[in-house]
Amino acid sequence: MNTPFVQLYFTLEPPVKKVAPYGLFALRQLFQPAFCHAAGCSDGQLRCRGGIDCPCRAVFEQTLATDPVALRRYQKPPLPFAFTIPVLPEKLRSGDAIELSLVITGAVISYLDLFIKATLALFNASGIFSDWQVVSVAAASIDGTRTHIPLGAVAGEFSSLPLLSFEELFSGGGGSCAKISVRFQTPLRLLHKGSPVREVPFSRFAGALFRRISSLAYYYGREELPHDFKWLARQSQEVVCTRADLRWVNRGGSLQGVEGTVEYRGELADFIPFLLLGSVLNLGKGAAYGMGSYRFSAG
Question: Domain check: are 195 and 290 in the same one?
């Protein structure tokens, strides 16, 4: 469980003019070109001009496993990062602070400077975010303490930043838990037999968590998690949904899925570490760009 990750927070000052609630989700189309530009490998059409060791390839190429068994188990790798993008209030006032989070997982942490440079560039260049301003950047430790990162920092200044790991979140699990409430803050898009689901039974929710977390660990942490996922899958089927207030939303383009709140009851203690990790990695289609962001509370 040694897969490392870094959690960054970008504090933004929004423009005075009215901004659409999901306006920051346009980052999905803009981040990869910004990263390639920061890496110096862009040809202007999202084709990497760098060699096999280019950072752009390591982050976005999603190379499949060559081992047939691993390929069946983990399938296509997810992107090794996840933005948590806020849904903006209807009214923004001068001086309001908006927080954007970015989690970077596994080996690509070595390109931390490029992730920061690319994100800053989105808000400093001409374009749809040009009226926004990045006020500060910080990295979070496991207890929530934040280490400030100078906006002009270079790669050599990142050695003292807090490095988290999957193990740290898993080690905080344990104890008993018989009830949880989950709130999907941004559209969750899970597929079943090729079609998006509009209900989220716990077994499907847990299965998506297992696949995402174990795949990130395998492809970017170079480890196979030690859990008995077959047993966990069987246990997840015993957890029942006691209340669901979910709605299908279409926010335009690819921003489609379910939002709302769902409650589950059952033997949940073994699932809490996965839920904790999933709450920073997001879930489902588009998770890298803020889709499937959720918060949960245990009762």
Answer: yes
Between these two residues, 255 and 154, which has the higher pLDDT value?
A: 255
Same domain membership, residue 203 and residue 104: no
Alpha helices in the chain (DSSP H): 27-39, 55-60, 68-74, 112-124, 166-170, 202-221, 229-236, 272-281
- The C-alpha atoms of residue 201 and residue 64 are separated, in whole angstroms, by 29
Look over the chain and give the mean of its residue pLDDT values, rounded to a whole number.
Answer: 89
Side chain identity at residue 125, one-letter code: A
CA atoms within 13 Å, Cβ hemisphere of 29: 10
Max mean pLDDT range (48-52, 165-169, 230-234): 230-234
Q: Do 108 and 162 fall within a single domain?
A: yes
Residues 88-114: pLDDT tens digits? 887 777 667 899 999 999 999 999 999
- DSSP class of residue 86 equals P
Residues 118-141: pLDDT tens digits? 999 998 776 788 888 899 999 999
CB of 278 closer than 8 Å to CB of 188: no
195 is written with which tokens?
Answer: 């079609």
CA dist 69 and 72 (Å) reads 5
- Distance between CA atoms of 171 and 166, rounded to whole angstroms? 9
CATH of the domain at 185: 3.30.70.1900
Cβ atoms 126, 30 nearer than 8 A? no
Instruction: Write the pLDDT tens digit of every residue in 172-199.
Output: 655 678 999 999 999 999 988 888 999 9
Model confidence, pTM = 0.93
**Residue numbers of the domain that contains 221:** 167-298
Q: C-alpha dihedral over 83, 87, 93, 97, to 10 degrees?
A: -30
Using DSSP's 3-state secondary structure scheme, residue 47 falls into: coil
Q: Confirm if 190 and 204 have CB atoms less than 8 A apart.
A: yes
Looking at the fold, whether 189 and 211 belong to one and the same domain comes out as yes
